[in-house]
Task: inverse folding
């Protein structure tokens, strides 16, 4: 029973000596994911590869069509930079992702989206691409949501 | 301070009146997901559509290549049954999925896998298909893990 009394005492003590300074307001995980999504879309519109790569978890995995899994931020970053190097002068002129079903449980979250991307090649008409994306996100030790798993496949024109 | 005393009293009361009967052992979520995976693979090997469909959440979403999202168990079930009806006499002779990165947080889980499927058409040589799968799973109110979101795309031959 010593343990029980000790616990009760600690609870009492903690209740009597509540700090009078205001507490940090609780995080709103859904708002955090919405902000993450906006940051992801804007980084693509700016074609800001370092910003996109920084949104990945160190041990994230990207699952893209007709490719083996890309495992780790380094491999994913190299892939993103290689694609950009192979498409000099191309501009992403439109990036729209309608995200659905944001689910958060502790430090883990998931959501899926329908993507429309407008791509402008140099001296050619612009092209539209349609796809779907599924994200598993993880909040890292610094409190930032990162992409843990990403998968993408093509969609018909909506 | 009434609230503080009341809380302390309740804590004390709960500590003094701990039940003496043994508690249910804690569930091992990873073992549950491994069992889920085995059930999923075996249902495919048996081509048991009702069993596959029953593994979906009522409001699950399937994200398949070159298709709009299939939303809800009813729509997903219809798609699975339609595919089977269009392939009379075909047999799934091999179904292998190497799952990776099982992550569980409360009632939510995710994992991805590399799939090889052997399909035997009637009176023709068998074919092998290669793909990747990403699952978001949710434990429903009955304690069963269900597919909340599924995405798939093709892989090169490993």
Result:
């Amino acid at each position: 029973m010593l343990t029980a009394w000790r616990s009760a005492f600690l609870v009492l003590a903690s209740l009597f000596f509540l700090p009078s300074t205001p507490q940090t307001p609780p995080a709103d995980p859904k708002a955090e994911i919405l902000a993450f999504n906006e940051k992801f879309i804007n980084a693509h519109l700016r074609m800001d590869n370092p910003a996109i790569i920084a949104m990945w978890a160190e041990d994230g995995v990207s699952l893209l069509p007709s490719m083996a899994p890309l495992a780790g931020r380094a491999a994913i970053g190299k892939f993103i930079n290689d694609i950009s190097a192979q498409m000099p002068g191309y501009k992403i002129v439109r990036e729209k992702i309608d995200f659905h079903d944001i689910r958060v449980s502790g430090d883990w979250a998931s959501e899926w989206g329908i993507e429309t991307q407008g791509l402008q090649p140099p001296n050619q008409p612009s092209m539209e691409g349609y796809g779907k994306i599924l994200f598993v996100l993880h909040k890292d030790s610094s409190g930032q949501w990162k992409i843990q798993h990403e998968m993408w496949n093509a969609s018909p024109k909506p």
About this structure: Chain A touches chain B at residues 1, 3-4, 7-8, 11-12, 15-16, 61, 63-69, 100-101, 103, 105-108, 110, 112, 114, 132, 134, 136, 138, 148-149, 151-156, 158 (CB under 8 Å). The longest strand of chain A covers residues 91-105. The longest helix of chain A spans residues 29-45. Residues 8-20 of chain A have pLDDT under 50 and may be disordered.
